[in-house]
């Protein structure tokens, strides 16, 4: 019952608007820690009990799926945006006029998604948007492999 409550009430609130997030390694670690916190609270496991995360996952009969689900939602949403080829497409790919800001460039959604999907190059990912079946296969394979 608690698993269903977690999936129905808490996870949707947590993942609201996740399609537009840029997930860095630090944010990914925080999301995984949040997921483990939810599971520990659901199982009523105190922090003083020295249980590893793997042991808690085994007791709950779950796997870590939060970050994978967020990445899958991002990929699906990005597929919709890229098919339209309107202003959202220009902003997402970063092909708008103007000067670059100084310093280290911020990580873009496309960079994180390209590494998650596998090819590693943003240009390969952009080419895959055109073929709907290839795009679905890329998302399914990346989801199976994990984060």
3D structure, described in words:
With 147 residues, the protein is mainly alpha-helical. 65% of the residues lie in helices and 0% in strands. Helix 2 (25-43) crosses helix 3 (53-60) and helix 4 (66-84) runs antiparallel to helix 8. The protein is elongated, with a radius of gyration of 18 Å.
Span of the ends, CA to CA: 28 Å
- One letter per element, helices H and strands E, the order comes to HHHHHHHH
User: What's the total number of strands?
Assistant: 0
Per DSSP, what share of the residues sits in E-state strands of 2 or more residues? under 5%
What is the gist of this entry?
The chain is mostly helical and 147 residues long. Helix content is 65%, strand content 0%.
Give the helix/strand layout:
Layout: H1 2-14, H2 25-43, H3 53-60, H4 66-84, H5 87-93, H6 109-117, H7 122-128, H8 132-145
Helix pairs in contact: 2-3, 4-8
Keywords:
65% helix; single chain; mainly alpha; 147 residues
């Amino acid at each position: 019952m608690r698993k269903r409550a977690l999936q129905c009430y808490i996870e949707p609130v947590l993942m609201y608007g996740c399609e537009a997030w840029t997930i860095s390694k630090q944010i990914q670690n925080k999301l995984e820690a949040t997921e483990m916190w939810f599971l520990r609270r659901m199982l009523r496991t105190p922090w003083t009990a020295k249980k590893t995360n793997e042991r808690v996952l085994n007791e709950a009969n779950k796997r870590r799926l939060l970050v994978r689900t967020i990445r899958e939602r991002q990929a699906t949403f990005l597929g919709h945006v890229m098919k339209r080829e309107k202003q959202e497409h220009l902003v997402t790919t970063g092909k708008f006029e103007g000067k670059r800001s100084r310093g280290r460039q911020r990580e873009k959604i496309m960079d994180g998604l390209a590494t998650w999907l596998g090819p590693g190059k943003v240009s390969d990912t952009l080419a895959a948007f055109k073929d709907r079946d290839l795009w679905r296969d890329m998302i399914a394979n990346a989801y199976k492999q994990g984060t």
